[in-house]
Design brief:
The protein has about 220 residues and is of the alpha/beta class. Helices cover about 40% and strands about 20% of the residues.
Length: about 220
């Protein structure tokens, strides 16, 4: 089954000049994350937004999707899960760009939690560099594979709350170090006192980054 999810047309009312793909976290869905677009759209009036639902649902939970099942929280499980889910997300991104008549340099990925893991894993392995990747409250999966797997180096912004009790705050520095070692231009934004969510300051940082990379 190909991915699909809620969409928002450009505020400008004209043809999209950029595409922002919002990638939700574990147990969430596209409707939940597309709400972030409302905050970012005024700064990017020409951009179209889409938030695909992850390919599988969590059993016995309505509207709760997952990019891969979380059972052991192990690094191996994350690596296998991200690798398995990447082709589907990759195909979705390519199709959305084609439909919009846009090239990769007009594409921005914004991920949250498990969605950040997907954004980094898929985005850095695409041959054509995109405008950028924003990763919120996430981590870099399989950092030891990045040097051999990386195919493009878009700028990356990592945002993380100091009080995150789901994905440890130190994950941001670990990801930042690995990305920099692989030649990626990476920036970080610390959200003091914020847990596993995005605060107003993080949203402002993401919006400023989006405006800068999409011009």
């Amino acid at each position: 089954m190909p991915l699909d999810g809620p969409r928002l047309a450009p505020l400008s009312g004209s043809k999209a000049d950029a595409l922002v793909v919002l990638i939700h976290g574990y147990g969430s869905n596209g409707d939940d994350l597309i709400a972030l677009a409302d905050m970012i759209r005024p700064s990017l009036p020409g951009a179209a937004f889409v938030a695909p639902n992850a390919p599988s649902q969590i059993p016995h939970m309505a509207a709760a999707h997952q990019w891969w099942p979380i059972e052991t929280f192990s690094m191996a499980e994350r690596a296998a899960g991200a690798a398995a889910a990447t082709p589907g997300l990759d195909a979705f991104i390519t199709e959305e760009l084609d439909k919009a008549g846009l090239s990769s340099d007009r594409l921005l990925l914004i991920g949250f939690s498990q969605g950040t893991m997907m954004a980094l894993h898929a985005g850095l392995r695409r041959p054509d560099a995109m405008a950028g990747i924003v990763g919120i409250s996430g981590m870099l999966v399989a950092p030891e594979q990045l040097q051999s797997d990386i195919r493009s180096r878009p700028p990356v912004l990592l945002i993380h709350g100091t009080e995150d009790d789901i994905v440890p705050f130190r994950s941001m520095d670990l990801a930042s170090t690995s990305l920099a070692e692989a030649g990626v231009a990476v920036e970080t934004h610390v959200s003091p006192g914020i847990g596993h969510s995005v605060g107003p300051d993080g949203l402002a940082a993401a919006t400023a980054f989006a405006r800068r990379v999409l011009g």
